[in-house]
C-alpha cells in the first residue's frame, strides 16, 4: 500500500519473510540464538517462516526436534539455563497446549523463583488465529491463556515492519516472550527494505494506526486490517475513528489507550478471541477504571463468539468483521454531542504497511 | 467405495527391508539389581571413597531426622524425607564433577546439600520464605522441582547446550518411580537419546508414589527397561548400596562425557518415612514391610562392609556421628531464627524491568505497609527493589 521511497530498496515483502529475516539477523549477530521446533529445519517450517535458516546456520542452530511440544519448550528451558537464547516454534496455536505446563510451571517463573538469577530469554513463536480455512485445532486465539500467566510477555505484530522489529525485540529480551503470529497475515505484503528495516517501538508500546476523534477502536494482530477497513467505511457515516494497534498485550500500554479514549470518549475493543474471559474484558475494565469520567458510552467488545473455534465453512460467522465493528460503533450512543478534535496525521510507520 | 474395496485396484509397493538400529552398548538391564557391598568385588573398592561415602551417609541420615523434627516445631511447612534413600542422594551428588549439573526433585534436598549447598538455603522452598533460596549457577544445582518430571527436559536442554558450546558437562536428573509415568519423562528420554545428550537419568524407585505402589504405576518388568525403547542403556542397581549406585552412576556419567549419550539408571530403594510429614503411611503399607527394608539400611550396609574390612573403628564411627550432630545443631540454630523477608521483593523478579502495572501494584503494597507501620524505614522510596541480573 505504501509506495517505495526514492533511493531505497524497498520491495514488497511478506510478513513471513520479515519474520524469517528477523531470526536470520538475530542468529547472525548472536551465536547464542538457536531456533528449534517441528519441521523448522529442512522444510523451513510449515509456513516457511524458518526457511533457509538450517542451511545457513547448520542443524545445530536450527534444529528439527522430535514431535513433542513439552519437550521442545522443556529443553529450551535447559538451553536458556546454559546461556543460549532459544527461539521455539509451536507449529499451530492449539498444538502449543501440551507445552503449557512447561510455560506456566517453569518458563514464566524461573526468574522469579530464583530471585533473578535465572532469566529465561526464550521466544515462543505461535502462529495463531483464524481466517485461513484451517481444520479443527488450527485457528485458536489463545492469548487470554498466556495473559493469565505472569512472567511472560505477549506480543503480536500486525504489519510487516512490526513482524521484523517486534521479533528482534523478543529475541533480544531477557524475559520469555510469547510471540503470536497472525497466520492470516503471513502473506500480507508491504514495501519493506530488509537491509535497512525502519526502527519500530519495542515491546510494551501501542501505536495509533489511524487518527480520529469520534471513537477509538482498540485492536491487535489479525483484527487490525478489519478495524482500519471499518474506519474507512465509517467515514461515510460521518464517524472519524481512531485505531490503536496494541502490538503488545503484556506489558499493556495503558497510556496510549487512555490518552486516546479520554479524547474520543468512546471505545470498542476488537479481537478474534472469545468474548467471555477474553482480553477485551480486561481492556474494557482498565479503560473504565482510568477514563470513567471521560466516557460517553460503555466500552464495547467485538470478539469471537464464546464457542470452540468453528469449522472452516462457518468461521466467517464467528470472526469479527467490518459490519460487526460498525454495528458496535453505532451502538455508542451517538446522541451525545461530539466534535472532531485536532489530530495529527500518523507517520508512515504508524499508518502501517499491511 | 474406498480404494481398498475395489478388487485389484490396490497394489502396495513392497516396503524396503527393515533395518534394526544397532548399538554396541547392551541396552537391556540385568535381571537383578547390581550390588557391590558384601560381594567379592567390594574388596577392589577404594577405601578412601568408601569412608567419604560413609561420612556423607551418616550426616545425611542425621540431616533427614533433623529436618523432620523441624516440621514438628513448625519451622518447616513440609519435609519430604529421604530417610532410607540416602545412598542414592549421596551417590548422585558425588558421581558428578564440579562443572556438571544436578537436576533434583523436591525430595532431593540432601543431594543438593552434598553437592555443596548451604542446608538453610536448600530448605528455603520448604520453609516457605522463597521458592529457590540459592543461585542455581553457584553449585550448578537447578531449582528443586515440585511438578513431577518437568525438570528432566531441562536437564536434556542444558546438557545439549553445553555440548553445542564444546563443554564436557554432564547433567544428572533425578525423578521418582511415580514421575516415570509423566509425559515429560518420555519426552526427555526421547530427546536425550535422539540428540545423544550427555544426561544421566536417576530413578529412585522407593516403592510408592505417595500411596500408590509401583505395581499400579507401571506394567513394565522394571523401570530400567523403559530405556530400551528410547535406544539408551537401562541399568538396575541396589539403591541402598551406596558403592554400587556410585559406581553405576559414575560409569554412566563417564559414558555421557565421552559422547556415548544418555543412560537411565533405576535404583531400587525404599522410603522409610511417610511421603511427607503430612502423610500417614500406615494406610497403604505394613510395619512388616518397613522392617524388612530397615534390615537393608544403606548406612548399616556400608558400616558392616567397612568394619568387616577393618577400615572403620569405634573412634571413627564416633567422630562421624559427632560431625553429624554438629551439623544438625547448626542447622537447628539457624533454622530457629526468623527469616528476614522483604515484601517489596514480590515485584522485583517478575520481569527484567517492572511493567507499569507492577509499579502501580508495588506502590499499592508499599502504601499499605507504610500505613500499617510494617515497612522498614530504610526501604521507603527505594526505586527498584531487589537484585537485578
Ligand atoms: C505433575 C504433578 N502431579 C502431581 C503432583 C503431586 N505429587 C507430589 S509427590 C507425588 C508422588 C510422587 O511419587 P514419586 O515420583 O514416586 O516420587 P517420590 O515422592 O516417591 O520420591 C505426587 C502425586 C506433583 N507434584 N506434580
UniProtKB/TrEMBL annotation, chain A:
EC number: 1.2.4.4
GO molecular function, one term: magnesium ion binding
Single GO BP term: branched-chain amino acid catabolic process
Listed Pfam families: Transket_pyr, Transketolase_C
InterPro entries: THDP-binding, Transketo_C/PFOR_II, Transketolase-like_Pyr-bd, Transketolase_C
Keywords: Oxidoreductase
Cofactors, names only: thiamine diphosphate
Chain ranges of the Transketolase-like pyrimidine-binding domain: 13-188
Protein name in the entry: 3-methyl-2-oxobutanoate dehydrogenase (2-methylpropanoyl-transferring)
Transmembrane domains' residue ranges: none
Entry-linked SUPFAM superfamilies: Thiamin diphosphate-binding fold (THDP-binding), TK C-terminal domain-like
UniProtKB/TrEMBL annotation, chain B:
MF GO annotations: magnesium ion binding; oxidoreductase activity, acting on the aldehyde or oxo group of donors, disulfide as acceptor
Dehydrogenase E1 component domain span: 66-342
GO BP term (any one): branched-chain amino acid catabolic process
Alphabetical UniProt keywords: Oxidoreductase, Pyruvate, Thiamine pyrophosphate
UniProt-annotated stretches for the region Disordered: 1-25, 367-389
Source superkingdom: Bacteria
UniProt keyword Oxidoreductase, yes or no: yes
Gene3D superfamilies xrefs: 3.40.50.970
InterPro entries per record: Alpha-ketoacid_DH_E1_comp, DH_E1, PdhA/BkdA, THDP-binding
Cofactor(s) demanded: thiamine diphosphate
Keyword Oxidoreductase part of the UniProt annotation: yes
Name listed for the protein in its UniProt record: Pyruvate dehydrogenase (Acetyl-transferring) E1 component subunit alpha
Gene: pdhA
Amino acid at each position: 500500500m505504501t509506495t517505495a521511497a526514492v533511493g531505497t530498496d524497498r520491495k514488497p515483502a511478506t510478513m513471513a519473510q520479515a519474520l524469517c529475516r528477523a531470526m536470520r539477523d538475530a542468529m547472525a549477530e548472536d551465536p547464542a540464538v538457536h531456533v528449534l521446533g517441528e519441521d523448522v529445519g529442512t522444510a523451513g517450517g510449515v509456513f516457511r517462516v524458518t526457511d533457509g535458516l538450517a542451511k545457513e546456520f547448520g542443524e545445530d542452530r536450527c534444529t528439527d526436534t522430535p514431535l513433542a511440544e513439552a519437550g521442545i519448550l522443556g529443553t529450551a528451558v535447559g538451553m536458556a539455563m546454559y546461556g543460549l537464547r532459544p527461539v521455539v516454534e509451536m507449529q499451530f496455536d492449539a498444538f502449543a497446549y501440551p507445552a503449557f505446563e512447561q510455560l506456566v510451571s517453569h518458563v514464566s517463573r524461573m526468574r522469579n523463583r530464583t530471585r533473578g538469577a535465572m532469566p529465561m530469554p526464550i521466544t515462543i513463536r505461535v502462529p495463531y488465529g483464524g481466517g485461513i480455512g484451517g481444520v479443527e485445532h488450527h485457528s485458536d486465539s489463545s492469548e487470554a491463556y498466556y495473559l493469565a500467566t505472569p512472567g511472560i510477555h505477549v506480543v503480536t505484530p500486525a504489519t510487516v515492519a512490526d513482524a521484523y522489529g517486534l521479533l528482534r525485540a523478543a529475541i533480544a529480551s531477557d524475559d520469555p516472550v510469547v510471540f503470536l503470529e497472525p497466520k492470516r497475515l503471513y502473506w500480507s505484503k508491504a514495501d519493506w527494505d530488509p537491509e535497512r528495516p525502519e526502527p519500530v517501538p519495542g515491546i510494551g508500546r501501542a501505536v495509533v494506526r489511524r487518527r480520529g476523534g469520534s471513537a477509538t477502536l482498540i485492536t491487535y494482530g489479525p483484527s487490525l486490517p478489519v478495524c482500519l477497513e471499518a474506519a474507512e467505511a465509517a467515514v461515510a457515516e460521518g464517524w472519524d475513528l481512531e485505531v490503536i494497534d496494541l502490538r503488545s498485550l503484556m506489558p499493556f500500554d495503558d497510556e496510549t489507550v487512555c490518552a486516546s479514549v479520554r479524547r474520543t470518549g468512546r471505545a470498542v475493543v476488537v479481537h478474534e478471541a472469545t468474548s467471555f474471559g477474553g482480553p477485551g474484558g480486561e481492556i474494557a475494565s482498565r479503560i473504565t477504571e482510568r477514563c470513567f469520567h471521560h466516557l460517553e458510552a460503555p466500552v464495547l467488545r467485538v470478539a469471537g463468539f464464546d464457542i470452540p473455534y468453528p469449522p472452516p465453512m462457518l468461521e466467517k460467522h464467528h470472526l469479527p468483521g467490518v459490519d460487526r465493528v460498525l454495528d458496535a460503533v453505532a451502538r455508542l450512543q451517538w446522541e451525545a454531542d461530539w466534535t472532531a478534535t485536532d489530530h495529527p496525521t500518523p507517520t508512515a510507520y504508524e499508518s502501517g504497511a499491511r | 467405495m474406498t480404494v481398498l474395496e475395489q478388487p485389484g485396484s490396490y497394489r502396495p509397493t513392497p516396503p524396503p527391508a527393515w533395518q534394526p538400529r544397532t548399538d554396541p552398548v547392551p541396552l537391556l538391564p540385568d535381571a537383578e539389581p547390581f550390588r557391590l557391598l558384601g560381594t567379592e568385588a567390594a574388596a577392589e573398592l577404594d577405601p578412601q571413597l568408601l569412608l567419604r561415602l560413609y561420612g556423607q551417609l551418616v550426616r545425611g541420615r542425621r540431616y533427614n531426622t533433623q529436618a523432620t523434627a523441624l516440621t514438628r516445631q513448625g519451622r518447616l511447612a513440609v519435609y519430604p524425607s529421604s530417610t532410607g534413600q540416602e545412598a542414592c542422594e549421596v551417590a548422585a551428588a558425588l558421581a558428578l564433577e564440579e562443572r556438571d549439573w544436578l537436576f533434583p526433585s523436591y525430595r532431593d534436598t540432601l543431594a543438593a546439600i552434598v553437592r555443596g549447598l548451604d542446608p538453610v538455603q536448600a530448605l528455603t522452598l520448604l520453609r516457605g520464605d522463597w521458592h529457590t533460596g540459592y543461585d542455581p549457577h553457584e553449585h550448578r544445582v537447578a531449582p528443586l522441582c515440585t511438578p513431577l518430571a518437568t525438570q528432566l527436559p531441562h536437564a536434556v536442554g542444558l546438557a545439549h547446550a553445553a555440548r553445542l558450546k564444546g563443554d564436557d558437562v554432564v547433567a544428572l536428573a533425578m525423578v521418582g518411580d511415580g514421575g516415570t509415568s509423566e509425559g515429560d519423562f518420555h519426552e526427555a528420554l526421547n530427546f536425550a537419546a535422539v540428540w545423544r545428550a550427555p544426561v544421566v537419568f536417576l530413578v529412585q524407585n522407593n516403592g510408592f508414589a505417595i500411596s500408590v505402589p509401583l505395581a499400579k504405576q507401571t506394567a513394565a518388568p522394571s523401570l530400567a527397561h523403559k530405556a530400551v525403547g528410547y535406544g539408551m542403556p537401562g541399568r538396575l542397581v541396589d539403591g541402598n548400596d551406596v558403592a554400587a549406585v556410585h559406581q553405576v552412576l559414575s560409569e554412566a556419567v563417564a559414558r555421557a562425557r565421552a559422547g556415548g549419550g544418555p543412560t537411565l539408571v533405576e535404583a531400587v530403594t525404599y522410603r522409610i518415612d511417610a511421603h511427607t510429614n503430612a502423610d500417614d503411611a500406615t494406610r497403604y503399607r505394613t510395619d512388616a514391610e518397613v522392617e524388612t527394608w530397615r534390615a537393608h539400611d544403606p548406612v548399616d550396609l556400608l558400616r558392616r562392609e567397612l568394619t568387616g574390612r577393618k577400615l572403620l573403628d569405634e573412634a571413627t564411627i564416633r567422630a562421624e556421628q559427632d560431625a553429624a550432630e554438629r551439623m544438625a545443631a547448626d542447622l537447628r540454630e539457624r533454622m530457629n531464627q526468623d527469616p528476614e523477608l522483604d515484601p517489596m521483593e514480590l515485584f522485583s523478579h517478575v520481569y527484567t524491568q517492572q511493567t507499569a502495572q507492577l509499579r502501580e501494584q508495588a506502590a499499592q503494597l508499599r502504601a499499605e505497609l507504610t500505613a500499617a507501620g510494617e515497612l522498614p524505614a530504610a526501604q521507603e522510596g527505594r526505586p527498584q527493589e531487589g537484585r537485578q541480573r
